[in-house]
């Protein structure tokens, strides 16, 4: 773990956000569409080799982990915490443990397993590292319901609730305005 400015996302934050943002966002493609696309993402993220075996159960687990992380990241942006999401993360933590590796140059949390299970462990280890560094609450998901993009809150007061205030924040404000107008007219 290397300590840097809390306003700059660490590699651990980039890993968690990269995983959360495997959904088809803003014209992108779904990276957990099938075993091949998930294997491709794992390879690109440096979490597994190109020949990694990915089963349908691995794919279902990846989707479950992603949704639980999105739920927790939404709580960082001000949404209510969902116990089911936290329970899911605890279950994944028990199934995919990480080991502390300590040396003269620092410490790291490394997965206890290889392959897809190790990738899950590395993602959870990255989240734990963020918590230890005090920057976990900066990793958020956009509160605009159709978006839910994961982002890093670089504001000094941790007040960001949308990935982009000009787009998602404006969309939420416009929907609220229209709802108020419709309520006043009705």
From TrEMBL:
Q: Which residues form the Zinc finger CGNR domain?
A: 138-181
Q: What is this protein called?
A: Putative RNA-binding Zn ribbon-like protein
A Pfam family annotated for this chain is zf-CGNR
Say which domain of life the source belongs to: Bacteria
